[in-house]
Amino acid sequence: MGVDQTLGNNIITTSLDKVVNWSRSKSLWPMTFGLACCAIEMMATGAARFDLDRFGVLFRASPRQADLIVIAGTVTKKMLPVIQTVYEQMPEPRYVIAMGACACSGGIFDTYSTVQGVDEVLPVDVYVPGCPPRPEVLIDGLLRLQDKIRGKRGKMVRPKWVDDYLDSIPR
What we know:
By secondary structure, the chain is of the alpha/beta class. It contains six helices and six strands, in the order ββαβαβαβαβαα. α3 (80-89) links the parallel β4 (68-72) and β5 (95-99). The chain is globular, with a radius of gyration of 18 Å.
């Protein structure tokens, strides 16, 4: 975790960033957003055989309780406003995984109605390739996201409502 030094037997010192980012990385709560065949593999990943609970990953059905959205499948222009609304309802800091060839690059659907990669509208943190990707590949993507979160320094984001509240206090 990046422990700097040990003083005696009972005291460990480290930075607050390291502790917060470590705890964030060990408690990812993804919002499931299954759009096509990749959703079946995402459900299999959350089932008992692959046991995501051991990594601290618990799927949530509400965007208000999720800090990660897994876009699994083909994103059409008709679904784009819904995806953006769900993403905006998630609290900060929020993360995005694009799962499958269709979410990453449009896949085989080079048509007017298909978004050629969800990164056109959302900031994607991890790409999980495949058509559809196996559960092991999604687990690897989640572990890579945990490593990315743990590696952040000085990026502790204060929620917007805290800034709004602090600005509303008369001084």
